[in-house]
Each structure stands twice: as structure tokens, then as C-alpha cells.
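We modelled each protein-ligand pair independently. The example shown here corresponds to the zinc ion entry; the chain sequence is given first, followed by the ligand as SMILES.
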Amino acid sequence: MAVMLHKFRPFSESYFNTMSWQTIQTQPLHGLAGGVEQAMAASREEMKSLLCSLIAQKSISGHEQGLVQFAHQWAGEHGFTTDVWQSTDQLVAAYPQGHARHISLANRPTLVLGIACCNPSRPALIFNAHSDVVDAPAPERWKFKPWMATVTDDRVYGRGACDVKGPLVSALWAMYSVSQSLGGPANAPVLLELVPGEEDAVGLGTLTSVLRGYHADCSIVLEPTESLPRLASRGGLRFAIGVSGKAVHGTVKWLGEDAIAATRKVLDALDQMERDYNCIAPDPLFSDCPIARPITVDFIQGGQWQGMVADECRCAGYFEMLPGDSLEVWQQQFRSDLLRKLSAVGIPANSLTVEFTETYRGHRTPPDALISRLAEKAVAESPANTQWQGWKAFNSGCEAGLRANLHNTPTLIWGPGSLAQAHAADEFVNFSEVERVAAMFARTIDEWLRLR
Ligand SMILES: [Zn+2]
């Protein structure tokens, strides 16, 4: 285990204030340095097979260990420094992410790997990937097997292909190619943290790395962003709404109170709230999204006995907000709007419970932050940059909010693949996109290492 010296270094904001855009422009990079390009090309087949091996690791939230062990071994064999450890629930308990409902951290290691570095006190760039994936509960709805990668032409199919093993391979490919071309240790830290549990409790895994002492001067969170860097992400909260009624035999239902029928009104109220919230202070970075603040019920359960009116029904889901929204203010508004709407249709507050079981913060990094400018430059120098239409947000919550809020870390979200395929049957990523993003990451790393 290599414990690196840059740990516990305080955030060097002043360093960046003294580092101007001029510094970057005086050291232009017109295309990838020859060595990097060669190293990328030489490892293409290996990277494709790495992606297939990662997909074959069934790393559903709570079961990340096998994937992390595999990545740890791979990193060691490829010359990276590594630090793998096991965090505890007690360690994170003092933080909101730690007391949110989550799968226990037992047997869920975190891994930080890095390019060998001779100057660990220099500003650190950290990539962030979550090691977990969502389950594939109905494999019969897949044309391809979810837990065995299938490669057809350019596409690689399998659970996690785009969320987030494809983006992870882009970062590993870039880091490996740059390290191969250096011919010695790097002069500044370039790290990757592989954190558990993003699909279960957003931010918790990155918190384990922060508490280990890893401090970054900027961060790139790997997620499927259609290959373009994004500079903002959503905050959100998980709600659980319970309705209690009174059970009676269905033939005398007028004597009971039907909790399932009442939950139908809860769903109607949530739909109305989602429409109402569209009109409140929209964010231009999210102008592509027809819904400003999505409210998505993903769980519903009610009824105990057949033939009975249900005396209890619960539903739960996510309310996703804009980066500037205050979680506390919106939590209050959500609760009061829901209770008011339900009271108006005859469901009293005392038959309802509204709980918030998880919250995570959104973030926004300025377009003129150093990492934003480096990324924009890498996109501009990429051979196929026609999709770039200026800065936009990533339309989801993710690990980006953790470091961005806790340490003010300038953070982008970036990776191949699309949210349209994430969590879906026949999830895939185009391998050419994995490669294209790897090349842009390599440019960004190369620039990072050239900064004085
Ligand atoms: Zn993801």
C-alpha cells in the first residue's frame, strides 16, 4: 500500500489565483504528443478487453469488492501507485452522507491509484469513478447478456458499459498512455479514486476517499456525458411517503379507508408539483431538459391481504433539483406543498408520513476555472468536436457534489456514453467514444503536467 505524501495538504486556492490563462496559452499543445498517441494506439485491444473484464465483474451496489480487487491488481501490474482500504460506517457517521440510509460499508473497499509521481506537493488532478452498477433484474428483457460483455462492431454491451465502466476505461487508458510516454515519474499527482456505492447513496463513496485524506485541486467525475465535459450537476433528495388507512373487507369498502387509493392521489399531487416547479427560476445550463426538477417515484408497496382494503401504502423516489437550489428550502417546500395538495383532496396530514432518507448537493464550476479551460481546449483539439455547443450541465446528481461542496474543488463531469443507455436493458457504449474521450483526457493530463 502506497500512502502518498500529498495527503492532508490544504486546498491551495491561492495557487490557482496566481496561475493565469496566459500560463496555459504560453505552452500550447497542438495534438497529442507522439509518445502518448503511440501508447494509446498500442494499448487499444488491451483496453477493449479491460472494459469487457470490468463488465464481467458483477459489481452491484454492496458487492463492489471483486471489481475493486481486479482493478487494484491491474493497476499494480501497469505501474500505478495504489492505495486500497476499507472505510467503516462509524467513520462517515458525522456527515450527512454517512447518516443517510445506505448499504453498510463493510467489505466495500475504496481504491485510489495514481501515475507514479516525484512531486506529490504539486496540485493534484483526480478522476472519480464509482465501482458499483445497478442490477439487471430481468435479463430476459436483454438481447445481450448483462454480465458478459458482447462486442458488436463498435459497441460494447453489458451492465455498466456506459455507467460507468466505459468512462472508467477512458481515464485508465489516458493515465496509462501518459505514464508510458513520460519515461519517468510525473511532476504532479494524477489520481483516480474508485469509490463504492454511488448508485445506492450519492457522495458516500467519495467521502471515504476525502476522509482518507485525499485532497484534489480539481476533479473529473466519470459519468456518461455523451463525450463532452459538463460543469454542473443536480442536487437531490430521496423521499418516502407513507399513507395509513383502515383495512376492511372489500365488499364493505365504504367502511374502510383505502391507502392504495389515497396513494393514487399522492402520485397526482407529485405530478402537479413537478409541473409547478418547472416555472420557478429555471437554469440555462439545463435548458435542454423539459423538466426542470424531476420527481420520480421508483417504488410503491401496499396491501397485505387479498380481498381487503389496504391499510397501508408506501411510495418512494427522488426529487432532483438545480445546482443553485437550497436543499433545506426545497425540502420544506416539497413537504408543505404535498400536505396542502393532499389536504385539499381529503387526505389529512395525520394519515401521512413524509421522510427524507438521502440528500446530495448539486454543484457548479465556473467556465473560467482552470480545469474548465483545459477541458474546453482538449475538446477543441479533438478531431471530432462538432457536437460542442458551449457549456451545459450533467442532468443528474453524481459524486461531483461531494468534493465541490466540501472543499470547493473545481469539478467537471465527463465520459463517453449517454444517460439514455444508463440503467437500461442492453446498456452499451461505443468503443470509439471511449477512445475519443481517453484522448481528450490524455490532453488534459498532459496540460496539467505542463503547468508551472
Ligand atoms: Zn453513474
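Confidence is low (pLDDT under 50) at residues 1-30.
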